[in-house]
Amino acid sequence: MTPAGPRKTAAYIGALAGLGLILAACSSGADPAAYPEDDIDIIVPFSAGGPTDTVTRMIAEPMSQELGVQLVVQNVDGAGGTVGAGQAATAEPDGYTVLMHHIGMSTAPALYDDLAYDPIADFKPVGLVTEVPMTIVGSSDFEPTTFEEFVSHVQENADTVTMAHAGEGSASNLCGLLLMDALGVEVTAVPYDGTGPAMAELVGGQVDFMCDQTTNTTGQIEAGEVKAYAVTTPERIEALPDLPTTAEGGQPGIEVSVWHGLYVPAETPDEVVTELTDALQVALADQTVVDQMADLGTAPVAADQATPEAHATLLQEQTETWGDIIGAGQGG
Ligand code: ASP
């Protein structure tokens, strides 16, 4: 076989380079005008079966229908949601990797010295999804029955009481920090990769209490599988009308709601973000989604909040707010 001459070699190299570019464009789905052409991974940075996972699966179905491709939930858990968020931050910025995260996006910078990503600089917000109340719940054999009893029991037995949470930077961790600060005690925290598995252990009595979204606790409260002490919103909620607020129980400092939003890596083209935002808006107006959320004590955000602009504003504000609170030692 005759070796290729210089002109032939240049032509081969040119052809290979062209093929490489085409393959790269195909594998990264790089044509924003044609988006989406393939299934989309949606990273949930907590375990399957927990509240973030539940809300994601609610909107994934109508978003898939709207986009004409499947949104495939990928649970990438660990370190309070920072493992999954870190993976999403470095994903190909082509719209085929989307992150669902919650309030933890705004608390992680203050809680982690070595956070591998910048929640503001490394992502483009797609839109807010929902804001979920939290509840303080105990295992059925945990002694206290009312919120007032819970407060005094935890204060008097802090050295033996255990609290489940989903890792440093998670919403349950944040609520636990507010609670311990308000009660002036420190209890033993038991971290899980999500509050789905934490709830299973709470129901089994392996841990005493947890503060978690209603999207993970309403079913167990209604079924009598856990004791419910209080809801962390200023007003009582419709789904659990008998549950007092933390303020009614004399603890207004334990007030927090968990907002959720969708993100893509920062370099993702705006046309792609617009497609995702439009599909999110359709999903949030879907009556099945509205009903499912209502059953679990929450609701989709208003359409003007399911936008990149409103989401970016809230993320910025919340990062500053929690940075100040945690930095001032409220969370320690
Ligand atoms: N509710 C969890 C948290 O505390 C996360 C989850 O499992 O969805 O952040």
How would you characterize this protein structure?
- Belongs to the UPF0065 (bug) family.
- This is Tripartite-type tricarboxylate transporter receptor subunit TctC.
- Pfam families: TctC.
- Keywords: Receptor, Signal.
- InterPro entries: BUG, Bug_dom1.
- The chain is an alpha/beta fold and 332 residues long.
- It has two domains: 36-132 and 258-329, 3-Layer(aba) Sandwich (D-Maltodextrin-Binding Protein, domain 2); 133-231, D-Maltodextrin-Binding Protein, domain 2 (3-Layer(aba) Sandwich).
- The protein is 42% helix and 18% strand.
- The chain has helices spanning 6-27, 51-67, 82-89, 104-111, 147-156, 171-183, 195-203, 214-222, 270-285, 287-295, 308-327; strands at 40-44, 71-75, 97-101, 123-139, 162-165, 188-191, 209-213, 226-231, 257-265.
- Strands 1, 2, 3, 4, 5, 6, 7, 8 and 9 form a nine-stranded mixed beta sheet that branches.
- Aspartic acid binds at residues 46-47, 50-53, 104, 166, 170-172, 194-196, 212-213, 216.
